[in-house]
Structures are given as structure tokens and as C-alpha cells.
Amino acid sequence: MKKRFLLFITLCLALSQSLTAQEVKKYEFGASAAYGIGLGEETLNSYKLDLSAGYKIDEHFSAGVGLGYRYAGQPLLPSNIENVYIWGKNYQSFRAFFYGRYNFLSGKKWTPFVSMQLGYAFFKNSTISYHIDPFALFPEGRMMYGEEDVDLSEYEYLKNLDNTLVIKNRIFGSLDLGMSRKIGRHGGALSFGVFSDVQPARFEYNKTSHEKVYFSIGPKLGYTF
Prior knowledge:
The protein is mainly beta. Helix content is 12%, strand content 58%.
């Protein structure tokens, strides 16, 4: 009787572990890193990191949520001051998003996939800097060096201007195309591909505001387990 009871307990534990393993395989967790190359008239390169957690609806499709971080370059902003350029400092954003992913093949070591993200970017406020147009200082195109050659007195007021850059939160979208390869016996997969990103942003500075939309494309590397 005692042996049967121990055998029963052993079978229950084994069945429980089997069911738990099958249940865990329905969920997926991922991490990725990407470098975006800016497109358009005003290129703005960026880096981004994403963490995600999702549910495998079937052998092909999965969906879930994620959190990300994006670090972008210095945007050139429209200036409301004659002969002066305005540059924004490198800015950062934290992102929350929903994602959906479709694997074109199932049960294969290699599979192509497509993935989409739609979310909201929370920007961290930054600062701006003012730069005098060199053609305004040297209208004849001659580059003269030394303080005695350049009169900057009319631009002294720039030092007293507010340099705060407020960046309003905006919705963003992203599309990934790539290949994934299964690694090991525990369901992990390494993925690599190309992503494209669309990020609107509203900048408020020096009593003015401007809306911009930045496009980027670049390589992306990730791991899902």
C-alpha cells in the first residue's frame, strides 16, 4: 500500500511538472536591441532597447505588451530668431506598447516572421542651444579667426534666453521583418532582422512649438524564450 501511495505521488508530481511545462510554453518573453538610421530631410539616428511579455495564441501568432527605451540624436528645430540656428540636445523616451508577431513556419529551426508594435512614448524634457549662422557673421564668405575679427555684441542676448525644451508625449508605430532560429531544447530563439519606426514629437521652446515626424530604419537583434 505504501509503495502504491508513493508511486501515485510520483506520477502526480510528474504529471504536474509536465502540465506546468506545457503551460509555460504558451508564454514568451523577449529582449531586443536596435539601431535606427534616420530617413528624410532631417535625419535623426537612435538606439532602442525593448523588453516584452506575450502569449502564444497558436503555433504561428503571438501577442503581448512591452516596455522600451529610446535614445535619439540632436534635432535641428525651426528657429524664430533671425540668423540663429536652434539645436535640441539628445533626447530620451520611455515607451509602452502592444505587439503582435506572426511566424510563417511552425516546428522549424528557422522561420521568417513579421512583428508590429503600437504604443505611446513618454519623452524626457531636454534643453536647446543657440548657434549663430556663420554666413551672417561672414556675408562675403571669408572665414576670419580671432575675437577682433568678429563682432558678437548684437547676439549677447542669446545667453539670457530660456533653453528649456519640452517634448510632448506621442503615439508611435514600428514594423519588424526578420528571421528567428531556435536555440537549445527549452524553446529559446535568436532573431535578427530589419525594423522601421515612425515617431511623431511635439517640441515646445522659446515661446514657440513645432510638430515633427521622424522615420528610421535599421538592424535589430533579439532573443525570445
